[in-house]
Amino acid sequence: MSLLAVGTVAIDSIETPYGKVERVVGGAATYIAWAASYFTDQIRIVSIIGEDFPEEELGLLKTRGVDTDGIHLVKGGKSFFWSGRYHNDMNSRDTLETQLNVLADFSPDLPSEYRKSKYLMLGNLTPSVQMTVLNQMEVRPDIIAMDTMNFWMDSAMDELLKVIKRVDILTINDEEARQLSGKQSLAKAARDILKMGPKYLIIKKGEHGALLFDNEQVFFAPALPLYDVFDPTGAGDTFAGGMMGYLSNKGELNFGNLKSAIIYGSAMASFCVEEFSINKIKSLSDRDIQKRLKMFIDLVQFDI
Amino acid sequence: MSLLAVGTVAIDSIETPYGKVERVVGGAATYIAWAASYFTDQIRIVSIIGEDFPEEELGLLKTRGVDTDGIHLVKGGKSFFWSGRYHNDMNSRDTLETQLNVLADFSPDLPSEYRKSKYLMLGNLTPSVQMTVLNQMEVRPDIIAMDTMNFWMDSAMDELLKVIKRVDILTINDEEARQLSGKQSLAKAARDILKMGPKYLIIKKGEHGALLFDNEQVFFAPALPLYDVFDPTGAGDTFAGGMMGYLSNKGELNFGNLKSAIIYGSAMASFCVEEFSINKIKSLSDRDIQKRLKMFIDLVQFDI
Questions:
Q1: 3-state class of A206 per DSSP?
Q2: CB proximity A107 to B under 8 Å
Q3: B300 contacts A222? CB cut-off 8 A
């Protein structure tokens, strides 16, 4: 079952039309691990933090059964910090400040048992770091998923393409799919990106849902129309965490399981945006999740 | 089952990244009638044209069983003309020219048998013309749907709200829903717009599908990810035509029937955009439509 999540564990300051929070917990691996923890166990995080990262937050992850031994604490260092302000439409945001801090020297050295993890989620990071992790795996994981972003397409495309070639599932947003493929039509973009290596491509469209492609089929997962989107930070990572948590539990990677996994991911992401930081996804019950999944079923069910 | 479609019957010149056509058949009522003709009979059009409108096109509608006696031909007049150019992303367009021509004096006087139509689709038109039609109905139709656009929200809001109050189904796009309600969240926009009178609100999101709301439920119909969107002109009207054609055949208006109707509408719209003008929706077989509907089922079907 052993799911390895690689990504940032960070501190964020976030401003949205609903309010403002200072120095709260963030980071791709944090969101991934929390979301996955509802569906699978033996979750391991590989990341790097400074002394300013709140110890009790690591404790909370441990009580969820998440192994945090792979989170390297740099004495005297400061954690990766991001601050941003969302616009009124919540679909765009301004980055106010990015401090790489300890992340600048992140060169993961995986604990030996981590190197045999059966499932691997590479959160958005420098492609060379993602590659380092891939190279340290002793056995090829059963499922490798990766997230990335336009920044790496602009600055490290060659290295990025090498990582993409080695994964099973790639998750990017619609604009990134267009940039990576040079195609406006998402159907064409998917066809071209699947030729780059991954078996499955997931195109995330935020409030418009997500598309899953393989070479033969396409599936659409809707987003729940919410009254209030409080804070979109981490929604994509929460989506990936819910998806990989579900897949790690199922074990087998096929189109049918991936469809369900994406609905689980979408449900977790719909919780994530309802409060700041990881506040909402820290405190869900199984009943909350089941009710939310039912809403997704009702949302798209029809008879013809 | 007598479906009355009110709207423009027009001539368009259209330029898209795929090509350019001059003076082809267009108009909301044209698309509505063609799309509906696959699902119901006794379709009637109320509109106005000039002598430049190609007679053979009216003939084709007649062979589909569409009653065109309510299309008023103005001797010596010219038909409503629109020309536009779509941008590369196909989501935005520039209007190059609009000639109201005979539409400027359109004041419909419904043939007596039209006034008892059981189903009514008010295509996008001046709200006062939509109101004139409503007032001429001798018996309140079983189902009244209307389409409108931001232009009337800017220029004739009071009159528009009076029409909206009297219909069962309102179809608008996402930006129009935000403008009409003043709410960014579509869930909140829907809640507020439903207070204005309609029982059902359909929010069209183009390539992102469509949302259906009543006061208690929400349904999402996806759009098919297409390789090529050739010409988006008339997609919204084709959607409405497919929907009202299906509903006219079913007879009863409820959330379940409307869900199916919207999938039919989405399927017809997916054909519409694959060729210029009404070219594709003029020549479909039942088998084409059944195959396309199956694609919509596959697109959102999952097991949990």
A1: helix
A2: no
A3: yes
Crossing angle of helices B235-250 and B28-36, in 10° steps, is 40
CB contact under 8 A, B225 and A187: yes
C-alpha torsion B122→B128→B129→B135, nearest 10 = 80
Domain boundaries, given as residue ranges, for chain A: 3-300
Indicate the burial class of A277 (C-beta count within 10 angstroms; 0-12, 13-18, 19 or more): buried
Structural tokens at position B89: 């992303």
Supply the CATH classification number for the domain A3-300. 3.40.1190.20
Give the whole-angstrom CA distance, residue A40 versus residue A143: 14
Claim: this prediction has a pTM higher than 0.90: yes
Q: What is the Cα Rg of chain B in Å? A: 18
Torsion of CA A39, A43, A48, A50, to 10 degrees: 70
B256 at interface of A, judged by CB pairs closer than 8 A: yes
ipTM above 0.95, yes or no: no
The one-letter amino acid at A274: E
Handedness of CA A67, A72, A77, A78 (dihedral sign): negative
- A221: Cβ contacts below 8 Å, ≥ 6 apart: A209, A210, A211, A212, A259, A262, A263, A265, A266, A296, B302
The answer to whether the CB atoms of A219 and B300 lie below 8 A apart is yes
pLDDT in tens, A151-174: 999 999 999 999 999 999 999 999
* CA atoms of A121 and A31, how far apart (whole Å): 12
